[in-house]
Amino acid sequence: MSAIILGHKNPDSDSIIAALACAHLYRERGLDVVAAAQGTPAPETAYVLERFGLTAPEVVTSVAGRDIYLVDFSDKAQAPADIDEANLMGIVDHHKLGDMTSSSPIEAIIWTVGCTNTIIKRMFDYMGYTIPAGLAGAMLCAILSDTVIFKSPTCTEMDKKVAEELAAIAGIEDIQALGMDLFKAKSAVAGTAPRDLIFRDFKDFNMNGSTVGVGQLELVSLELVADMKADIQAELERVKAEGRHTAMFLLTDIMQEGSELMMASDDAAKIAQAFGQDPAKLAEGNLWLPGVMSRKKQVVPALEAAFRG
Ligand code: MG
Ligand code: MG
Ligand code: MG
To answer: What Å distances lie between residue 243 and 122, 188, 271, CA to CA?
Structure first.
């Protein structure tokens, strides 16, 4: 049976396109692999696949007995429940090292850049294979999505350089315009159930024994969700009640370059303090976190520090 290349739960554009791009590269290398995803594409990813003529990977929720390559994660919490029964073959990722391990030597490339697809572009270069134009366009979109059009603190010079190289391959002249097209597709939230919005890009983290779930929605304007906030807050209470210490939801305004923090928590004051906010402000409603755009680089480390103490 083919080995599976799989991104994280609640897949984003990077996870889905990294699986497709790695599958292309690994097949070029003669490996028997198939791209997979732990869910169907969110609207932004659907837009990218459609625009560049690609097909969504097959949905896989069980990996027992299979050879598996991970892309865009290495945390068991973001893997299928039976991950311990799979045989880990490799990892390509740009997050903190998770808790996966292997029983034999693996190919692991983990790099502190803004996007898994930046790494994969460099793997194509290093190994001497070319990228088809459509795939290059989609890989560029993954970089624009993960780096929030190069504005996120996770963005590196390497991401920008690779983005330009991919744009040249794909024949794209205006990278910024492509980025805005993406975030407009992502911002089409009207009529979406609050639960679907929260879980569209949601990750659970084990914080010193407490489960903290963090959802993030990046929008071109927070006005788009203004009249949905009461329903979102009610849903966050339910999400917390499903066994979590805290359910957080970051509404990131990509133009204002900051995030509004909504949450349901057993200890909201502790969470507020983790982000340098006065807990007294909680009574006034949601917290505005200026400059906070990255869950990986700004939110998770702050929470880890707060829960360690
Ligand atoms: Mg991701
Ligand atoms: Mg990523
Ligand atoms: Mg992201």
So the answer is: 40, 30, 17
pLDDT in tens, 76-96: 999 999 999 999 999 999 999
Q: What is the pTM of this model?
A: 0.89
Band of residue 116 on the pLDDT scale cut at 50, 70, 90: very high
Ligand nearest to the CA of 11: 1
Cα-trace Rg, the chain: 19
Ligand number nearest CA of 296 is 3
Ligand found nearest the CA of 115: 2
Protein residues within 5 Å, CB atom, of ion ligand 2: 14, 72, 116, 146
Closest ligand by atom to 95 CA:
2
The Å distance, Cα 96 to ligand 2 centre, comes to 11
Paired sense of beta strands 202-207 and 246-253, if any:
unpaired
Distance 73 CA to ligand 1 centre (A): 7
Cα(101) to ligand 2 centroid in Å equals 20
Query: How far, in Å, CA of 38 to CA of 76, rounded?
Result: 13
What counts of helices (H) and strands (E) characterise the chain? Answer: 10, 11
Q: What was the pLDDT predicted at 177?
A: 96
- How much distance in Å is there from the Cα of 284 to the middle of ligand 2? 34
Choices 2.60.40.10, 3.40.50.720, 3.30.450.40, 3.90.1640.10: CATH for 3-184: 3.90.1640.10
- Residues facing residue 62 across a β-bridge: none
Pairing mode, if any, of strands 258-265 and 246-253? antiparallel
Which CATH superfamily groups domain 194-308?
DHHA2 domain (3.10.310.20)
